[in-house]
Design goal:
The protein is of the alpha/beta class. The protein has a single domain, classed as Collagenase (Catalytic Domain), CATH 3.40.390.10. The chain has six helices and nine strands, in the order ββββαααβββαβααβ. It has helices at about 125-140, 160-170, 175, 225, 250-265, 285-295, and strands at about 1-5, 5-15, 100-105, 110-115, 180-185, 195-200, 210-220, 235-240, 305. The strands form two sheets. Strands 1-2-7-8-6-4-5 form a seven-stranded mixed β-sheet, sandwiched between helices. The longest helix has 17 residues, at about 125-140. The protein is globular. Bound molecules: zinc ion. The site of zinc ion (ZN) has 5 residues, from β2 and α5.
């Protein structure tokens, strides 16, 4: 938590690790069949852009590189779901707030997501992201920073954006259930969630270093702050490592997981079978993930995004 005069700002950061040799389920490419309503190759530094869509279904390769299934290879500890608890929710609370719950209020929907064309934010040591990233991006946007001056992350290609969008689309089921709604925008300045890329998170690689595949930073509000004009909406910032998520299937799963955080599932699931497990090994929402989201979005939460 960061204090700034009488304005108390709360930030949250989710560091998402990946298994280097996790397994992916056989149907991990199925998300590609459901195409996102997204146009993401254009942006402007001022007025909303009316850029055109690129590519289409034909651009999405149905044949990702062969994925080796190595079930049973779990590097970190985790619990396994059973026939009895396979659909039980887990606690989605924010650890920094004593596990209190947070989600988007209905008034802010549909949530708008902007996936940058491979742009990389200024590098900074990973442990500094938590306190500074949201504020930094907010200030860049507010000052009209020319986004086209940001470099494109090494290892990024347009396919990465389809993979990210496809991962986010896995949460669309809850729009059909009336719990939330979201869509993609070409205008970063309108977006509630912005997506950037990096070749590597600084300070997280090397011998003995942890493996960070993605990171999501967000600001949280109390209900009082939400109606206080001094509190400005700041975008949730998602960043993906292209060196870790070099396969489209892996990036798609990482994006699905990160969007779960962006929606307010702040804690990780203790179950390996869940998308929101800390060392995610699956690419799709489990019944437990779905039950958790439903619980969260049917609840009145003390904190909001
Ligand atoms: Zn995570």
């Amino acid at each position: 938590m960061k204090k700034s005069g009488f304005l108390s700002l709360i930030y949250t950061t989710l560091v998402c690790l990946v298994l280097q040799a996790g397994y992916l389920p056989a149907d991990c490419q199925s998300g590609y069949r459901r195409l996102p309503k997204a146009q993401f190759n254009t942006y402007s530094s001022g007025a909303p852009s009316s850029g055109s869509s690129v590519g289409g279904p034909s651009r999405l390769s149905p044949s990702a590189p062969g994925i080796q299934s190595t079930p049973g290879l779990h590097i970190t500890k985790g619990e396994s779901r059973t026939a009895q608890n396979y659909a039980d929710p887990y606690n989605p609370g924010e650890e920094k707030l004593n596990m209190q719950w947070v989600r988007w209020p209905r008034e802010k929907m549909p949530l708008l997501i902007w996936i940058s064309p491979g742009l990389e934010l200024p590098k900074m040591p990973f442990d500094q992201l938590q306190e500074t990233r949201v504020e930094q991006v907010y200030k860049m946007f507010a000052s009209g920073y020319p986004l086209d001056q940001l470099p494109v992350a090494k290892g990024w290609s347009q396919d990465a954006n389809y993979a990210v969008a496809s991962g986010i689309e896995k949460w669309r089921v809850f729009q059909q259930e009336g719990l939330l709604s979201f869509g993609f925008t070409n205008n970063p300045y309108d977006a509630h969630v912005v997506v950037f890329f990096t070749d590597n998170f600084q300070g997280t690689t090397g011998p003995g270093g942890i493996i960070v595949g993605a990171n999501t930073c967000a600001q949280l509000f109390t209900p009082d702050q939400l109606v206080d004009p001094r509190f400005k909406q700041k975008p949730v910032v998602m960043e993906f490592s292209m060196s870790v998520n070099h396969e489209p299937g892996r990036l798609e799963g990482a994006a699905a997981h990160e969007f779960g955080h962006a929606l307010g599932i702040k804690a990780h699931s203790p179950y390996r079978e869940d998308l929101m497990y800390v060392d995610r090994v699956v690419n799709d929402l489990s019944e437990g993930d779905k039950a958790t989201l439903r619980l969260l979005y049917r609840a009145k939460t003390p904190y909001l995004m």
